[in-house]
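Protocol step 4 of 5: obtain the predicted structure for the target chain.
Materials: sequence only (see below). No template structures provided, no constraints applied. The aim of this step is simply to have a reference model before the mutagenesis design in step 5. Sequence pasted as it appears in the construct record:
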Amino acid sequence: MFDYTNYPTYIYGKNPMPVAALESMLERRWHGAAVHGHVLPLTGWTIGIPSLDLALGPTGIPHGRLTEIFGDASSGKTTLAFALLAACTRRGDIGAYVDPENTLFAPAAEAAGIDLDRLIVVRPKAEQAVRRAADAIVRSGACAVVVLDGISARALQTHHCARLVSQAERNGITLVALSRGESQPLASFASLRVRMRELSPLWQSGSDGGGRLSGYSIALDVAKSRMGAPGRSAAFDAHIPDVTMTWPCGEVTIESREEEEEEENAEHSASIA
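Step 4 output (structure tokens):
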């Protein structure tokens, strides 16, 4: 136990301890001198969508901090996460996606601009496994952006969030949690909270008079920001590529159905004969 008897009592403003003496004591006892100097400015990711970048402020989605993107199912949370991961991999960095609900669709991620060779996908099943996977990835410091998808109110408690945020800040990792907005620890520890307000489909008229889905219109609000004033809103359109009849599984399904119809017709003709 540290012996304070040989140290005089210092009262701030009357007889303060010299800074050199304080640093010397800290170095001898705890092997670390006090650090003082200029605080580095906080930096972050810009998505490349003008209205969204304007709403997020000059920092964007911050490095070394926790960002919570919350909203109902099919509200655009994954679209925003994909845009961030695309910016990450486009810069040559590594991203990670913790996907316990197995919702990440690789063709959609690649179409959004994500370099799949620079994306690590982990699919733990239990909540404890989710916490351990997230902790291991953030502690490693190997990924610039870590996205935690499908985070429930029970998955990350206060001490889990505190440990993850501490490690993310130490390693400069952008930690993003996609949730329904029901977790109080996430809301407390998040430096930025984005609420996905509305998602509506965009239809494109076809030559036959019908319509096809061409994308989505997404609206969001900045519910909390420690880097700037909250309350800003943004809206943008996310267009999807034409992938109709390009997946092998679709072709196999169609061919299988045609073969079944030919067999049924042959059996029907044989029964009539």
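Step 4 remarks: The beta strands are 44-45, 61-62, 66-70, 95-98, 119-122, 145-151, 174-179, 192-205, 211-225, 233-239. DSSP finds eight helices and ten strands in the chain.
Proceed to step 5.
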